[in-house]
TrEMBL record:
Belongs to the UPF0324 family. Its main location: membrane. This is Sulfate exporter family transporter. It is found in: Cell membrane. The chain crosses the membrane at residues 17-38, 59-79, 91-109, 116-134, 146-167, 174-196, 242-259, 280-301, 313-331, 343-364. GO terms for cellular component: plasma membrane. Keywords: Cell membrane, Membrane, Transmembrane, Transmembrane helix. Pfam families: Cons_hypoth698 (PF03601).
Length: 370
């Protein structure tokens, strides 16, 4: 396996417990450094011209960057393959997504998100379909275009992670999709509130537009902090509604790839229910269960601080996941993908902006924020 920038000599992969523990410790140390940078960089930049950008940068940026740095160092020391048993990317990702479910309050969706549900269903269907179609026209490999379509149409990195589990994508493909989400989300934080003011959009329409566009929940919150508190309320409902559909899309992708994509490239017979269940990403069930449990917990008078703690734990696991992605990353997958995924993602982002604006105007044009 090659490092991110060079072919470094490597020692044979070791299955020893000592190496695995050392690998986990490397992930934890880089994860702690990620959290430190996430919290301190905005403070360091406060009062400077970079303050706005510093506040908008989310943990995946630092985590992947530190993971890639560790990748280079360990490859140079011929230690990366030996320690890789501790880079438990899949475990960290799945655990983080299960914990994400606890923040999805089903009661809020059922009682306050009627227009948001309609917007989410239409927006996801249109944007996912366009991205999948354009990716196919440009010859992008099916697994990568599934990640790109999920990321741009649903909720960015979290959706890409869920899709990766459903279609069994390569780690390089997930890292590529996550990087594109981050690159396109950062300018949107400042651009969309400005455009909302230029277009004279109401708070409800602006919130629905921003919530349906920006591909990470934290970036949505940052953008609507600029747009205003009323816009933030609507954007949070819209984005939460889209987040809740992660499980539905993961189930659909699992079935589609098993029944069509993989059968198309082989002579295998139609998979049985048992085979579908075997490859189905079980963490999706955990995501749904966590959402139900979290909703019932709050409904029965539970302390919101507990949910906050769970969310913080989720962040830690996702930080570890992105660190591990960086540590295991290889340029081979990106070289093979080339420029085409960037064109697809950029085009889909434009479509997402236009379609989301139209839906927001129709569904939230007469909506009053109480």
């Amino acid at each position: 396996m090659t490092g991110p920038a060079t072919d470094a000599p490597t020692r044979p992969r070791s299955s020893g417990v000592g190496y695995a523990v050392a690998g986990v410790l490397v992930v934890i140390a880089l994860g702690a450094a990620t959290r430190f940078l996430e919290q301190q960089v905005p403070r360091w930049a406060d009062g400077t011209g970079f303050a706005g950008v510093a506040k908008s940068i989310e943990f995946p940026v630092y985590a992947i960057a530190l993971g890639l740095l560790g990748n280079v160092v360990l490859s140079r020391l011929a230690l990366r393959d030996a320690l890789s048993a501790g880079f438990r990317t899949e475990f960290f990702i799945k655990t983080g997504l299960v914990l994400l479910g606890a923040s999805i309050n089903l009661k809020v969706l059922a009682t306050a998100a009627g227009p948001a549900i309609i917007q989410a269903l239409l927006l996801i269907s249109i944007v996912f379909g366009f991205t999948w179609w354009l990716g196919g026209r440009l010859g992008i490999e099916d697994k990568l275009r599934a990640l790109l379509a999920s990321a741009v149409s649903i909720c960015g990195v979290s959706a890409a992670i869920a899709a990766a589990g459903a279609v069994q994508a390569k780690r390089e493909q997930l890292a590529y999709a996550a990087s594109l989400v981050i690159v396109f989300a950062l300018p949107s934080i400042f651009l969309l509130p400005w455009l909302a003011g230029v277009l004279g959009l109401s708070d409800a329409v602006a919130g629905a537009w921003i919530g349906g566009n920006i591909d990470t929940t934290a970036a949505v919150a940052a953008s609507d902090a600029i747009a205003g508190e009323d816009a933030l309320q609507i954007a949070t409902i819209v984005k939460t509604t889209q987040n809740a559909l992660i499980g539905v899309v993961a189930i659909a992708l699992t079935a589609y790839f098993a029944l069509k994509v993989e059968r198309r490239s082989s002579s295998e017979a139609r998979p049985t229910i048992g085979q579908l269940w075997e490859r189905f990403p079980k963490f999706v069930l955990g995501f749904i269960a966590a959402s139900v449990i979290g909703t019932l917990y709050l409904q029965w008078g539970g302390d919101k601080a507990t949910i906050t703690t769970v969310n913080d734990l989720r962040t830690w696991f996702l930080i570890f996941a992105f660190v591990a992605i960086g540590l295991e990353f290889s340029l081979r997958g990106l070289r093979e993908a080339g420029w085409r995924p960037i064109v697809v993602f950029a085009s889909a982002t434009v479509v997402n902006i236009v379609v989301a604006l139209g839906l927001a105007l129709v569904l939230f044009g007469n909506f009053t924020v109480s």
